[in-house]
């Protein structure tokens, strides 16, 4: 899953051209073509609207292609090309677009999950000149995240997800760590509690890395991810329909690994620490129960109001550990609540942040990277909804409202004072196929997070 060779990319070779046109430049473009090709486009009704594609005839077959961009400035304007163009090598002619965004969009559209079923056809290949390494890195990370989220739970359990994290760390020279068994119970008791009902044992995996130019005083970024490889809901069992996509409940951990991969490949001068809680939430005689009380790493006691609110339990010990290290940013990613999807839908991760400057950085980066998110409030007035008569707090609210907000407030309780923290409650999935976004697992918020971190820490 780490070795993404991006088969939609070709080495420098002979290739047919892809011309790009916007409505404002259509007439000059037509005037620049041979009369036969210009007439072909006119007769075909080509108007240069977004995602409009026409193949140009030549003397011995297809001479090239013309892609309408409309007003679309996102990478996804190029996302349908890999499987709409004929197989073979293609190159992008200069035009009114960002070349790196075009490369990224082409690669995002070239992904298909093919572990068990071969694709109906190979994708077209784009010849990419030097200078677009960052776009290719982002694309490879997105392919990795998608592969992880798409993998069936019988093949990607806690141990396998932990292995991917450790392999990623080792590849970049990081110091890796894996905690299980009695050590897990001692260091991460909530992770151990959530995972104890499954035959496949829970694990916390992670690594520590620093860029080649980083020092002991370089910015410290902690990334924590929810890695629930399958979520049955536990004793608060989900209905059958609610389990159909629960292999994707490790999407937060996958996204964290994608963020880490991009940051490490960019060799930014920072110190990076990663932790993912890898568990399966199952039903058995060993599984945790409603109204159990758990003592956490932070020392707070938690009454279990619902075993299907397990993600915040997986994360709370990780957040306690991370915040005690006084990071310049602590970011967690999780497929945490259905309430966030009700609030902002599947495409927008819900952003929670306790630091205004970081919130602005994430939101701005999301728009600029065409990887948007939407901020929801850490509303203090709802904090008392987590009160418990027998423990320091409950893992769910006593009221049926604002579920995503309450989940974020729960996790905030475990932070050391003064920790700059951002939480992304994301869907990690595309329900349908759109240009550059095939149905299945998705790395939502990944590119935005990387851009926000780079801008905030290293742009003066």
Kindly list the characteristics that best describe this protein.
15 helices, 6-stranded mixed β-sheet, Aminopeptidase, 8-stranded mixed β-sheet, Leucine Aminopeptidase, subunit E, domain 1, 460 residues, single chain, Peptidase_M17_C, alpha/beta
Structure explained in plain terms:
The chain has 460 residues and is α/β, with parallel strands linked by helices. It folds into two domains: 9-131, Leucine Aminopeptidase, subunit E, domain 1; 137-458, Zn peptidases (Aminopeptidase, 3-Layer(aba) Sandwich). It has 15 helices and 19 strands. It has helices at 26-32, 35-43, 81-84, 99-109, 133-150, 158-171, 181-187, 189-195, 240-243, 251-265, 311-324, 338-344, 356-368, 403-412, 446-458, and strands at 9-10, 16-21, 53-58, 61-68, 89-92, 125-127, 175-179, 203-210, 220-231, 271-281, 293-295, 301-303, 329-334, 350-353, 374-375, 393-394, 421-425, 429-430, 440-441. The strands form four sheets. It has an eight-stranded mixed β-sheet, sandwiched between helices. A six-stranded mixed β-sheet has the order 1-6-5-2-4-3, sandwiched between helices. Strand 3 (53-58) and strand 4 form a beta hairpin. Helix 7 (181-187) packs across helix 8 (189-195) and helix 13 packs across helix 15. The radius of gyration is 24 Å and the shape is elongated. 50% of the residues are buried. The model has no long low-confidence stretch (mean pLDDT 96).
């Amino acid at each position: 899953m780490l070795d993404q060779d991006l088969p939609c990319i070709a080495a420098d070779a002979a290739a047919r051209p892809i011309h790009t046109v916007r409505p404002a430049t259509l007439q000059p473009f037509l005037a620049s073509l041979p009369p036969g090709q210009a007439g072909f486009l006119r007769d075909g009704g080509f108007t240069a609207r977004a995602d409009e594609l026409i193949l140009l005839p030549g003397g011995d077959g297809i001479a090239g292609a013309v892609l309408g961009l409309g007003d679309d400035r996102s990478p996804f304007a190029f996302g349908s090309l890999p499987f709409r163009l004929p197989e073979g090598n293609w190159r992008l002619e200069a035009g009114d677009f960002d070349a790196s965004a075009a490369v990224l969009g082409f690669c995002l559209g070239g992904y298909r999950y093919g572990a068990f079923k071969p694709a109906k056809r190979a994708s077209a290949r784009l010849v990419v000149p030097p200078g677009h390494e960052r776009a290719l890195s982002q694309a490879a990370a997105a392919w990795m995240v998608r592969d992880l989220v798409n993998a069936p739970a019988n093949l990607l359990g806690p141990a396998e997800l932990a292995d991917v994290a450790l392999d990623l760390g080792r590849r970049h020279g990081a110091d890796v760590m894996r905690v299980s068994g009695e050590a897990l119970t001692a260091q991460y008791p909530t992770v151990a509690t959530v995972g104890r009902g499954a035959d496949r044992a829970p694990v916390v995996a992670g690594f520590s890395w620093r860029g080649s130019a980083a020092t002991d005083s370089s910015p410290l970024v902690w990334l924590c991810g929810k890695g629930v490889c399958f979520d049955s809901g536990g004793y608060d069992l989900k209905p059958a329909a609610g389990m159909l996509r629960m292999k994707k409940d490790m999407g937060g951990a996958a996204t964290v690994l994608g963020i880490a991969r991009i940051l490490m490949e960019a060799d930014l001068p920072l110190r990076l620490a990663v932790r993912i809680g890898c568990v399966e939430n199952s039903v058995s005689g060993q599984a945790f129960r409603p109204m159990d009380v758990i003592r956490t790493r932070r020392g707070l006691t938690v009454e279990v109001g619902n075993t299907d609110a397990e993600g915040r339990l997986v994360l709370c010990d990780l957040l306690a550990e991370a915040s005690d290290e006084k990071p310049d940013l602590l970011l967690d990613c999780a497929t945490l609540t259905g309430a966030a999807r009700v609030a902002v839908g599947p495409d927008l991760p819900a952003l929670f942040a306790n630091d205004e400057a970081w919130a602005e950085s994430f939101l701005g980066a999301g728009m600029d990277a065409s990887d948007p998110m939407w901020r929801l409030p850490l509303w203090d007035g709802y904090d008392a909804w987590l009160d418990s008569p027998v423990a320091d707090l409950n893992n769910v609210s006593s009221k049926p409202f604002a579920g995503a907000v309450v989940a974020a407030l729960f996790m905030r309780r475990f932070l050391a004072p003064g920790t700059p923290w951002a939480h992304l409650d994301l869907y990690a999935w595309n329900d349908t196929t759109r240009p550059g976004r095939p149905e299945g697992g998705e790395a939502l918020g990944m590119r935005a997070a990387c851009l926000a971190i780079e801008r905030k820490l290293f742009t003066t």
